[in-house]
Structure formats: C-alpha cells, structure tokens
Amino acid sequence: MTTIPILFAFDNALLMPAGVCITSLLETADPDTFYDIFIIHHKNSDFSNSKLLELPNIFKNCRITFRRTKDDFKDAYEIRGITATTYYRLLAPELIPEYDKIIYSDVDVIFREDLSHYYTLDIGNNYFAAVENGSRFRPDIQRYMKTILGLDDHNGYYCAGNLVINSKQLLLDNKLEGFRRLVMNNYKYQDRDIMNIACNGDFFPLGPSFCLTNYCYDLINTRYDDMVSLYGEDEITHALRSGIIHYNGTKPWKGTCMNADVWWKTYRESIFFDEKWCYNFWLDQYHVLDHLPLIKRLKLLLRYPVDVVKRRRGTSLK
Known about the structure:
Structural class: alpha/beta
C-alpha cells in the first residue's frame, strides 16, 4: 500500500468544487493507493455538516483530516477575488509536519489518474516539483518575470496549482520565513509569484500531465510541434488523455470553458450533485448574452471576425 499525503486549502465558498475535485481523486486511485487528505481552512470556515465527511465511507482508500489555521496571512494581499487561503500552501511543511514530502492541489481541478508516479519521484534537493508555465513561448510572461519579479526567465516560471512539496528541504533551508516576508507584497499572482521568487530555479520540472492548465492546453493546440519538441509526444498524449486538468481561468461551475465536460461528468456522478442548482445554472447560461450590457455586446460583435480568423489559422492537433 502506497500512502500519499495530499493537501487542499479552501473555505466554505468552494465546498462544492472541492468535493468534486476530491471525488475525482478517489475515483481514479489505484487499488493499492491510500490518500491521506488534509484540508486546511481558516477558523471561520466550518465543514462539520458537509458531505465531505461522507467520502471516507464511500471510498475506503482515504482519510480526511481538517486543520484550522491561525491568522498567518490576515493582512496578505488579495486580488481577483482570491482570498488569503491561497497562501496556505506555502506553509505546508508546518501545517502537515507528519510528512517530509506532500502533494498540494487547488480545488479547481479534476484528477484522471493515480498520483503514485508523481509522489514517488526523486526530486533531489529541489523545493518543489511543478509544471513550467510555458514562459519560453509567452513574451508577456517573460516580460513580467524580468521587469516585475526580477527573475531570470531562463529558469522558468512554474505553476502553483499542483505541486509536489519537498517539506524537508524547505524547512532545512528556512524558506518559510522568506515566504512570510514576501506575502505582504502586492504580487499579481500571489503565492505563485512568491514561490518562484523565493525558490528561483530550484524546481524539479514536470510535464503538463501534472497540471494541464488552460495555458498549456492552448499551447498544445496552437504550438503543437514546439510542445512536442519540449516534452515529447508521449507526454503530450498523456496530458490530453489522462492529465490533471486545472481550470485556472473560468471555472466550469461558473461558466463555459475548455474541458468543462470532464468536470460536469464527475459532478453529476458525485454525491455533491444538486438537480435544482444544475437546472438554474444551465438556464442562466442559456440567457447569458441577454444579461450583458450593450457595450459588451458591441465588443463581442467587433471581436467576432478576428476570432474566426484566429481559429482558421490555428494549428490542429496531430
């Protein structure tokens, strides 16, 4: 039996998506995998009556432990509606002292395979194993790294939505104090920027199958040959067929987005499915254009010809 500790951090507002995410994790586990699940939350969140408590009764291959945090980040910078909860992953070595290595995952995620391969990787003295954000193909990210973050773009810019965390090395090198200092700065991408600044270059690079973000998905579709040359065709195929999907843009429970069908399938088959909520969601989507103000409708009409040309010029998957 392989025990894999995995950390999630969220509040009551994300209870349903978190339940769907964790359901997908447990559904895709190998028979000899046991997930030791830790849910870190602020003291104001209460999950005592949530359906999350039912999951260990349905899936025998898991244990769920809830841990309240102190006000470590009560004054931390928040942007785009992302609360201070996002910073908790940076303190994983302190919050989960039982393990020298732990996987972290956001909850806007659907798992499609067992995580043993990632957890058992030897990542050496690197602080994290993560997926590079395709910065070499994105001049905007390269500029952001150099001018705003002061990073060497040759070291890459790594995603923070799915991580293998080397807790032992982070504690050994006292990195958590650096995280705490940086948290007070107004970084656009919050914990991701902090992680990349404090650990510049000390990442074990993983392929996009570990964190198939919208950016990665877009690059695979529009720059297929470049992505194959970087990761190999087997890894790209792996990512598309069974990689961890990270909905880092529009969320499938809030609107339309790529790979939304995968999330909805898991949701419909989970104990978190709510017929009334589902009905109201799709009814609202049906009328979404009717709710747009006039200026936004005009922008859509003006942008439409440009979008059509882009799609026609786009590179199809091979």
